[in-house]
Amino acid sequence: MIAKESWLVNGLIDYFAQTNSYRIVEILVKVQNPHDLAIFNKLQKCIQEQPRTRTVALTLVAHIVRKHPTWLYKVVNHQFLKDLLKVLKVNITVENFLK
What we know:
The protein is 73% helix and 0% strand. It is mainly alpha-helical.
């Protein structure tokens, strides 16, 4: 069910990647279950790809954490957080991470 209904969340995150629009962040932090999981899934996919998409994912996560949505606690049980920590561990310096 999430795959069929996640097209809008995926599109919003793709739009954020192109524009860095803060309005997209405001929309994303207001989503409800199961769309919150779609956000984590898309962010996980982003950090597994090229360095540019990793930067977008990290930027978006930082914005989301600052807004502290009600579903943020679910990130600890999602594979996204584990993958993000692995990427950060391998790319110790910010310069390497942003390349």
